[in-house]
Write a structure and sequence with these properties.
The chain is mostly helical. The chain has a domain of about 60 residues. It is built from 4 helices and no strands.
Length: about 110
Amino acid sequence: MNALANELARDRAVRDAALAVFRADLAFIREDLGTRGIGGRISDRIGESAKDMLDDAVDYAEENRGMVAAAVAALVLWFARAPLLHGLAQILGFDDGEAELQNGDARSHDD
């Protein structure tokens, strides 16, 4: 019976220590929520997540400079494709400028 009493005393001591830690954590959380509020905590969390994502993107870009440069060049060419194709057509003599005037006139009459 003495062994059971000792084990019970140890278990109660562990339980009481765990309860004390839990109460301290709960008090800390309540104090922190009272100081910053839930909105402040959410904005801090989102800000930290965005910063982490930006850091990861910068690390990736530094490790893969060639791929990132190729992707940026492809995007620039894609968005500038119409003026580039028009200029190339003028250089090669496929476009004499009349088609653009006719298309421009047709667009202004349609609107």
